[in-house]
Design brief:
- There is one protein chain.
- By secondary structure, the protein is α/β, with parallel strands linked by helices.
- It has 3 domains: 3-84, Orthogonal Bundle (Arc Repressor Mutant, subunit A); 92-160 and 267-315, Periplasmic binding protein-like II (D-Maltodextrin-Binding Protein, domain 2); 163-257, D-Maltodextrin-Binding Protein, domain 2 (3-Layer(aba) Sandwich).
- It has 12 helices and 14 strands.
- It has a 5-stranded mixed β-sheet with strand order 4-3-5-14-6. Strands 12-7-13 form a 3-stranded antiparallel β-sheet.
- Strand 9 (203-207) and strand 10 form a beta hairpin.
- Helix 1 (3-16) crosses helix 4.
- The longest helix has 25 residues, at 60-84.
- It is elongated and about 75 Å long.
- Pfam families: HTH_1 (PF00126), LysR_substrate (PF03466).
- This is LysR family transcriptional regulator for bpeEF and oprC.
């Protein structure tokens, strides 16, 4: 029995609370995971897990062994990381989840540059903005937008998100340009709905440091960011879209920004990972690379956005343990 591999299998079973999910995240057959746990218990002469047809519980011995395994595996990662600094190339598989539009616009055009720099690292990119249980689903890190409020997660801010309120020239010629937030009551939107609940997203505006929400009426609702922007381009209605998606259309004149003096409050874009999972050298190089990528992107360079975000942070400081990504209050960028 490979004891190191057995420790990795055991910790993943505990973290995912499932033999099947552990097997999937490790790329192993479920039978191999089950056999490995049995061999490990036989070797240690203790019961690590209590298994029934419906439930999986960690025994007191198993909980103590898990904590030691986490530390041992972290130490091994540190040793390998120190060797990496001596010229060894990081290798392995990284599973990342991020919003689809963000991935297609920023990440995918540069992914070949990442592979040229780190040829032995395999990226598994999941495109979604649904809530992800990183431990249970075997995801190494996620890229998310919004304030974070879960102390079990660590967030590294890599950029700032800004939404803009836009419409096509055709729509504005036909229905007029709203000059006040109240005037939106007479206008139509392409509504965005959250697939999990069906709830419609309201427009939001920063008015003198306070958030103002405006429900919008519309004849069509979508739950895809590209379709959302496409509806605006076709003149169906006004939308409040991600600036990085709207910017090329604003530059070409296909979309026009309205209510420029009242923008939604900027939100942080962060790479998020569990604090109790050691950041491996392979994941670390990806996090550093993606932070550099966002920092160099013209789509997120706007000094006014940065200044407004800092002013808002100073006026509304988050609690010390505030580190959880938002769910349905996020902007649509899936």
């Amino acid at each position: 029995m490979d004891r190191l591999q057995a420790m990795k299998v055991f910790t993943r079973v505990v973290e995912t609370n499932s033999f099947t999910r552990a097997a999937d995240s490790l790329g192993l057959p479920r039978a191999s995971v089950s056999v490995t746990i049995q061999q490990l218990e036989t070797y240690l002469k203790v019961r690590l897990l209590q298994r029934t047809t419906r439930k999986l519980n960690v025994t007191p011995d198993g909980a103590a062994y898990y904590e030691r395994c986490v530390r041992v595996l972290a130490d091994i990662d540190d040793i390998e990381g120190s060797l990496e600094n001596r010229g060894l190339s990081p290798r392995g598989k990284i599973r990342v989840d991020l919003p689809g539009a963000l991935g297609r616009t920023v990440l995918m055009p540069r992914v070949q540059a990442f592979h040229q720099k780190y040829p032995d690292v395999e990226l598994m990119l999941g495109f979604s903005d649904r809530p992800v249980d990183l431990i249970r689903e075997g995801v190494d890190c996620v890229i998310r937008i919004g304030a974070l409020q879960d102390s079990t997660l660590v967030a590294r801010r890599i950029g700032l998100y800004q939404a803009v309120t836009v419409a096509s020239p055709r729509y504005l010629e036909h229905f007029g340009t709203p000059r006040t937030i109240e005037a939106l009551q007479k206008h139509t939107s392409v509504n965005y709905f959250w697939a999990r609940t069906g709830r419609l997203m309201e427009f939001t505006f920063d008015v003198d440091g306070s958030a103002v929400s405006v429900p919008m009426k519309g004849r069509i609702s979508v739950n895809d960011a590209e379709a959302y922007v496409a509806g605006a381009l076709e003149g169906v209605g006004i939308v409040q879209a991600a600036r990085f998606m709207a910017l090329p259309h604003l530059q070409s004149g296909a979309l026009v920004e309205v209510l420029e003096q009242w923008k939604p409050m900027p939100m942080p874009i962060s790479v998020v990972y569990p604090h109790n999972r050691h950041l491996s050298p392979t994941v670390r190089v990806f996090v550093d690379w993606v932070a550099e990528l966002f920092g160099a992107s013209d789509l997120f360079k706007d000094e006014d956005v940065r200044e407004r975000f800092l002013r808002h942070q100073a006026a509304h400081p988050a609690p010390a343990d505030s580190m959880n990504f938002r769910d349905e209050t996020d902007q649509p960028i899936d």
